[in-house]
Specification:
Elements (H helix, E strand, L loop, with lengths): L2 H15 L111 E5 L2 E5 L3 E4 L2 E4 L8 H30 L2
Antiparallel strand pairs: 1-2, 2-3, 3-4
Length: 193
Amino acid sequence: MNKEQIKEMIILHHLWLEGDKNGERAIFRGANLEGANFEGANLRGADLRGADFRGANCKWAIFRGADLRGANFEGANLRGANLRGADFEGAFLRGANLEGTNLRGANFEGANFEGAYLSNCIGNNREIKTLQLGTYITVLTEDIIFVGCQSMLVKDLDSITIDTLLDMGGQKAVNWWAKWGEMIKMILEKEKV
């Protein structure tokens, strides 16, 4: 789809959301939207199944309740987006920036988050859990933990050294880990059940 077609679809979708008889629900099912600009767009409830958003700018966009099953967001910027209640089943989010996103109620069953940046997001409490631990927002997935703007692989948690923590955030990080590290490990262990 070209820029004009995308813009027209967003306008018609906005009218649909407002209840205007001239509006229509956005259907980008399977569309090639690679590199497109959706910054601030309201696509609440849109049908975006299987769409290709690779490298797209979706910063501050609203995908609340949208159908994004099987969509490809590799390398996309979703910073600050509202993804509340969206269905991302089987979606590909490799390397996507999800910093500060609202993921409450979203379905990420079978989604791929490899290399995704999840700092300061609000998790859905299933695949992505968010905890406020002291001064840091902590985001946990099956494979990755984000503490503030730092990330580490879950499999590496047992090998964390004081030097690693000092490199990450100085004495403040060392003190934080001493207080919260065992609790994080316990949560991750209990979630495996």
